[in-house]
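INTERNAL AUDIT FORM
Audit reference: QA-55
Scope: verify that the stored structure record matches its stored sequence.
Auditor: D.O.
Record contents follow.
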Amino acid sequence: MLVLVVAWALWSGHSEPLIVGFGALSCLGVFGISQRMDRVVGAEPLDYPLALRSLAYIPWLAIEIVKANLNVASLILNPGTKVHSHLIRVRATQSTELGRVIYANSITLTPGTITLDLRGEDLIIHALSKSAAEGVHEGDMDRRVSRLEPQG
């Protein structure tokens, strides 16, 4: 709790009583929610190997997000370019629910694509362009997320 309050105080730069009061209420709210989540979600131990494997995945994902941003920007800034959106269904190859959720969220984080539905192993994805849809079908992200999962 103290870390939250100190971080808020340093990052906010405000010292007015009303704002400090709102900050204190926000910190209490976040602390309360996190305590409740520990009781609900905390039954599973933290997967340290997943955290270590993600150190290689996150930079790759960041580069993909930048590339997708440039693609979407070019669609917007070029008035002659027609947007051809696609609704596609792909099968996730991850063996765990967490892996499929990471995959679905990674798709949504990438501009120009959004995961609309995840049921079992099937994802419904809206892609803003043909190239974005092809990128999902190529399966590079799917393979990389599968490598995050425990091997065994």
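Auditor finding: record pair retrieved intact. The radius of gyration is 20 Å.
Action required: none
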